[in-house]
Amino acid sequence: SEFEVRLAGSGTTFTVRTGESVLDAALRQGVMLPYSCKNGTCGSCKGTLVTGEVHYPFHPPMALERHELADSKTLLCQAEPLEDLVVEAREIEAIRDIEVRRLPARVMEKTLLADNVMKLVLKLPAAQRLQFLAGQYIEILLAGGKRRAFSIASPPSSEDEIELHVRHVEGGDFTGWVFNELALRDILRLEGPLGTFFVRNDGAERPLVMMGGGTGFAPLKSMIEDLLAHGDQRPIHLFWGARTPAELYQEGLVREWTQAHPHIQYSSAISEPGDDAAPRGFAGFVHEAVVDTYPDLSGHDVYMSGPPAMIDAAKQAFAAHGVHTDRLFYDSFEFGA
Ligand code: FES
Questions:
Q1: pLDDT tens readout for residues 295-305
Q2: What region holds the FAD-binding FR-type domain (predicted)?
Q3: Can you spell out the DSSP letters for 230-254?
Q4: pLDDT in tens, 147-171
């Protein structure tokens, strides 16, 4: 049986099939709702149930606090309707018209950026482009229906090539294969663009704080290069955090940005500074560096990308420092094994 979902604000309606989440049904029908992890942990897909009831057959809605459940909040990536629903959720206009495609892509470059980070440059077939918004991600399709998600590190203007930063996960079958076996000119299959992490240009000319953990730098790099390409003058303060300085694998590029563009600032944070090295940057977690620099975040738009634990800690810290929740955008990813 199918149920109907109506969005409270816009009145947009779509149908949900048995066994489908509200989010999947919306995306299938071209209704763009915010999401990132799709497994119930990040909270990007949070909405409010105005009427109707849902259940969570696969994952409990971990990203919801108890009081939020009591307030009829729901995680649309996990929620399946038990009846027709009216839901309050932000519909995203900007990516509505971007088509999600499956494409083969050829490996053109494989460069080690750090001990555990590999840069891949993939070339799309002749005359094909992947239309995307800076900050979105693609999935690499593997045998047996498995997928691995990677943010696009290059800006949309780089035409028929896309750059990925692949972090080697200890014991990870796919990333181990990328590091050791994947060869130049091999073909990968990908699907994208995906996700709703992109810079909002909605007239609020607020300064941007961007925060990345490890390879969470990748989508921010795409965003910054895209903003520069468009001559956007909003001040940008990039914070990049990692365990060790070596994991800040493209600081040379970041310094080129800050030297050429006075509106870009950069700060680093190292969470495991050794005692021998001269102290460099902020010693601690990168979200601590952000609130140390900006005790009041109420005037900023904040974009952040990193593993779930970092994003969760940052959400709480930034809320305590005045960030407007509708001006906080994030991409939360597990490192794909
Ligand atoms: Fe639903 Fe992350 S919790 S997309």
A1: 999 999 999 99
A2: 100-200
A3: TT----EEEEEEESSGGG-TTHHHH
A4: 999 999 999 888 789 999 999 988 8
